[in-house]
Specification:
Elements lengths: L1 H11 L4 H34 L4 H10 L1 H13 L11 H25 L4 H7 L3 H12 L6 H21 L4 H4 L3 H25 L5 H27 L11 H24 L2 H7 L3 H11 L7 H20 L1
Helix pairs in contact: 2-12, 2-14, 3-5, 3-11, 3-12, 4-11, 4-12, 5-10, 5-11, 6-8, 6-10, 6-14, 7-8, 7-10, 7-13, 8-13, 8-15, 10-12, 11-12
């Protein structure tokens, strides 16, 4: 209990540039690895849900049950420092709203992709978000990357895209005519925009980055939960019946999804979105492990190429940061 209390105190400590400059290197790496692990596990749970319910209902499970977890996390982190909320501007809230909308669209697309192809291929298509985050970040948000970081991002993404095309037997020429590929690429762009906007929200706030991330997460899940509930009801009132008998899986998806979001949102507070996403590609290795042990999918030779590209990417990334 004492160590847990000390951790909370550290997370809630007032922001000072010097302090966070010393500790944020390990913090963004730790939070990114947490996010990658939880996202892989959460996506596995969502794959199970898509077998028995529509994409929109499976998406609602992510936000509807994740929001209470985000509220609890926010209260623990902020506790008696709610007076800091007055430091957030209208610009901050506008950025958070846009990020929440892009993430909702991206999640809907990803869940749809999972219902069209096998688990590993579906998640890999959305991994193009790393290169999109780097390009958009450099052009629009003036993000600067070292040569090693650029190489890391490109090698990781190209390796995973190559694996996706090989596994789905889609040629480069016909790739853009593939519904799965197009949906996955679009999801990647939306996820990239989400990451960049979350990073921007942290930069326009003068509060502790970890506390800001907790606040942004709670707001985002609240917005996404409300919008997704409206979509579920609009599509069909009978959609809610699909949730019956899936309570354990839904709670699992909500919990792991929120834990993953805590990792992503906090990592973005300390590091450029493209860099975080490049390291987050280790999720691919976790995904393959899940497909092998839980979905009984054999890891092929071409998938080993993907694993090697991710490992090379991570090494280059850590050298270049």
């Amino acid at each position: 209990m004492k160590s847990a209390f000390s951790l909370v105190q550290m997370l809630r400590a007032p922001y000072t540039a010097g302090k966070f400059k010393r500790v944020n290197l390990m913090e963004w790496i730790a939070f990114t690895l947490l996010a990658a692990l939880m996202q892989a596990v959460r996506t596995a749970g969502q794959k199970q849900l898509t077998n028995t319910m529509s994409a929109i209902v499976a998406t609602w499970a992510r936000y509807g049950f994740g929001f209470p977890v985000a509220v609890v996390y926010f209260v623990i982190i902020w506790r008696d420092q709610f007076d800091l909320l007055r430091h957030f501007s209208l610009t901050f809230y506008a950025i958070v709203l846009c990020a929440a909308l892009f993430q909702l669209v991206a999640t809907l697309l990803l869940v749809k992709v999972l219902s069209l192809r096998n688990f590993a291929v579906g998640t890999t298509f959305a991994k193009t978000e790393g290169i999109f985050a780097a390009i958009i970040g450099a052009v629009v948000f003036s993000a600067a990357f070292s040569l090693a970081a650029w190489l890391a991002i490109v090698i990781g993404v190209i390796g995973l895209v190559f694996v996706s095309l090989a596994k789905s037997n889609i040629s480069v020429q016909s790739a853009w005519h593939s519904k799965t590929f197009i949906l996955g690429i679009t999801a990647g762009i939306c996820f990239a925009l989400t990451s960049l906007l979350l990073r921007e929200a942290s930069l326009v706030s003068d509060a502790n980055p970890i506390m800001t991330a907790a606040y942004v997460l709670m707001i985002s899940l609240g917005i996404q939960g409300l919008l997704c509930s409206g979509l579920v009801q609009w599509q069909s009132p009978n959609n809610w019946q699909q949730l019956r008998g899936q309570s354990k899986t839904i709670l699992f998806v909500g919990l792991t999804g929120t834990l993953g979001s805590i990792g992503w949102y906090t990592a973005f507070s300390f590091q450029e979105a493209a860099i975080v996403k490049a390291l987050g590609q280790v999720e691919y290795i976790v995904t393959l492990a899940l497909t092998h042990y839980f979905f009984k999918e054999t890891i092929s030779k071409v998938e080993w190429i993907g694993i090697i590209s991710v490992l090379v990417s991570v090494v280059l990334l850590l050298v270049g940061v």
